[in-house]
Design brief:
450 residues, Membrane-bound Lytic Murein Transglycosylase D, Chain A, 21% strand, elongated, 7 helices, alpha+beta, disordered N terminus
Length: 450
C-alpha cells in the first residue's frame, strides 16, 4: 500500500474568504473580532473529519492525538484580547454627524448675514466679443473707360428777364355837382375821404362846392389782405385767423361791439383783424370778416412782403354847418337852430346827441338834447340870463340807445365818432321884471233907506 494511502487527507479549504458581517471586511479564519469595526465574529466550527478505515485505527489515533495536544498548548500560550464594551463604528458615525450639523449651522449663519447686509448688486453679463476677420485682400481689376468725344461748345442763349407788369392807376371819376349835394355827402357816396376829393380838385375841405361844378373823384385805395392776429387773454394765446372767413354785411342798427358779441369774438381781436378802431363808423352794406378763433395755437408763418397801400382815412363824425366858429348870436327871445351834415343813415336805436357848454359859467354842466334830425332848435331857456356875451362850445355825437331811466332820459353808448368842436358867442338876455300885483277895488252894495 502506498504512502499516500496511509496518510490522512486534510480538509478542503473554502474558496470564499471570510468577511465581517457588519462592514464586509476580509478577516482571518480564526479571528473572533473585526479589526475595522470591532464587531464580534461568530465562531467557525471546523469540519468533522471522516472516519478512517478499520485497517488503520491505531495509526489514526496516534496521529490525531499529537495535533490535539499541540493545539491545546497553543491555546494556552495565546493571550486573550480585551473586549471593548463600546462599538468604534458608532463613535465614528456620531462624530461625522456632529461635524455635518456644525458645518450646516455655520453655512446658514453666514448666508443670513450676507442676505441682511448685502449692498445693491450689479449684474454683469459677459458676452464674447466678435472680432471681425478682415477679408482676404484680393486683386480687383481696374476698368479703364474708353476715351469719350468732347462735344463742341454751343452758344449759351441769353436769358432776358421780363419785367413784371405795372399796375396802371385808373383815372378818377368825373362828377357834376347837383342841387343839395355836399362834399361830405360825396365822400360817403364814393367811399373816399373828403380830403382825397379836395386834394384831387385843388381846394380845401372848408371850400364850398358850387352847383354845376365838375369834381374829380379818386378811386379808393386798395386794401391789403387781412392777416392772422394773436392776443393773450387770461394767460392763453388766442388767434383770430381770417383765412377764408365768413363775411357779415352791416345792416341798420349794427355796431362793432354788437357784431363781435353775436359771433362770440373778443372785441379787440375783432377790431385788429378787420383793421378797425373804436372811432370807426360802420355803413350799411359794409362787410366784415368773421375770423376763426383758435385757442392755444401758434401764428402761421407771415407771408412775404407785399406792397403796403396807403390807408383810407376813416369817416369823420357829423360835419357842423351852423353856426360857424366865431359867430355872435343875437337872436330873438325864442332861440336859434344848430345844423350839421349827416355822415350815415341812423339805425333804429341810433340818435344824435347835441352837447352845448357855457365856457363862461363856472361849474355849470353841459346842456344835452337828442334828435334824429340834422338840426336842433336851441330853447330860449339855455340863453344866459345876464346882459353879457358868453362863449359856448357845441358838438354832435351818434349814440346807441340801450334803455330809459326812470325820469324818461336815455341810457346810451357812443356808436360812432364825435364831431369836431364848434364855438360861438351868445349875448345874454335882459331879465324881465316880475310885475307886482296891485289891489283891485271892488264895489260893495249898499241898501237905500226908504
Amino acid at each position: 500500500m502506498s504512502e499516500s494511502a496511509n496518510t490522512p487527507q486534510e480538509p478542503a479549504l473554502s474558496s470564499e474568504p471570510r468577511r465581517c458581517p457588519n462592514c464586509d471586511t476580509v478577516v482571518d479564519e480564526g479571528a473572533t473580532q473585526c479589526l475595522m469595526c470591532g464587531e464580534e465574529l461568530p465562531v467557525v466550527v471546523p469540519p468533522t473529519p471522516e472516519p478512517l478505515p478499520d485497517s488503520a485505527p491505531q495509526l489514526e489515533a496516534a496521529q490525531s492525538a499529537s495535533p490535539a495536544v499541540e493545539e491545546a498548548k497553543v491555546e494556552q500560550e495565546r493571550p486573550s484580547r480585551p473586549r471593548s464594551s463600546a462599538k468604534p463604528r458608532d463613535w465614528h458615525m456620531m462624530g461625522v454627524r456632529w461635524m455635518t450639523a456644525v458645518f450646516a449651522l455655520f453655512i446658514l449663519i453666514i448666508s443670513a448675514l450676507i442676505l441682511r447686509f448685502q449692498s445693491p448688486g450689479i449684474a454683469v453679463a459677459l458676452f464674447p466679443s466678435v472680432t471681425p476677420i478682415p477679408p482676404t485682400p484680393s486683386h480687383t481689376p481696374t476698368w479703364t473707360p474708353w476715351p469719350t468725344e468732347t462735344p463742341r461748345p454751343s452758344a449759351t442763349p441769353t436769358l432776358t428777364l421780363t419785367p413784371a407788369p405795372t399796375v396802371t392807376p385808373e383815372p378818377p371819376l368825373s362828377h357834376e355837382v347837383v342841387s343839395g349835394e355836399t362834399l361830405i355827402g360825396l365822400s360817403l357816396r364814393y367811399r373816399v375821404s373828403m380830403e382825397s376829393i379836395a386834394s384831387s380838385n385843388g381846394f380845401t375841405v372848408d371850400t364850398p362846392i358850387q352847383l354845376g361844378q365838375t369834381l374829380l373823384i379818386p378811386w379808393p385805395t386798395a386794401t391789403p389782405p387781412l392777416v392772422p392776429v394773436a392776443e393773450e387773454i387770461n394767460g392763453e394765446v388766442v388767434i383770430a385767423d381770417p383765412t377764408d372767413c365768413q363775411r357779415h354785411e352791416v345792416e341798420y342798427g349794427d355796431s362793432i361791439s354788437g357784431i363781435a358779441a353775436r359771433y362770440d369774438i373778443d372785441f379787440n381781436l375783432f377790431l385788429q383783424v378787420n383793421r378797425l378802431t373804436n372811432d370807426t363808423i360802420l355803413q350799411r352794406g359794409d362787410t366784415l370778416c368773421i375770423p376763426e378763433i383758435i385757442y392755444g395755437g401758434n401764428l402761421p408763418p407771415t407771408p412775404g412782403p407785399s406792397p403796403t397801400p396807403s390807408p383810407t382815412a376813416p369817416l369823420p363824425g357829423p360835419y357842423l354847418l351852423y353856426p360857424a366858429n366865431g359867430t355872435v348870436i343875437e337872436p330873438p327871445q325864442d332861440g336859434f337852430t344848430l345844423q350839421w351834415a349827416a355822415v350815415k343813415d341812423l339805425g333804429a336805436e341810433e340818435w344824435y346827441m347835441v352837447e352845448l357848454l357855457d365856457l363862461d359859467a363856472v361849474d355849470q354842466p353841459p346842456y344835452r338834447a337828442f334828435t334824429r334830425d340834422t338840426a336842433f332848435h336851441v330853447p330860449s331857456d339855455w340863453r344866459p340870463d345876464m346882459v353879457e356875451t358868453h362863449l359856448f362850445r357845441w358838438r354832435v355825437s351818434i349814440v346807441q340807445v340801450t334803455g330809459h331811466r326812470s325820469d324818461g332820459q336815455f341810457i346810451y353808448t357812443y356808436g360812432g365818432e364825435t364831431s369836431e368842436d364848434g364855438s360861438f358867442s351868445w349875448l345874454g338876455a335882459v331879465p324881465t321884471p316880475t310885475p307886482t300885483p296891485t289891489a283891485t277895488p271892488t264895489l260893495t252894495p249898499t241898501l237905500d233907506s226908504q
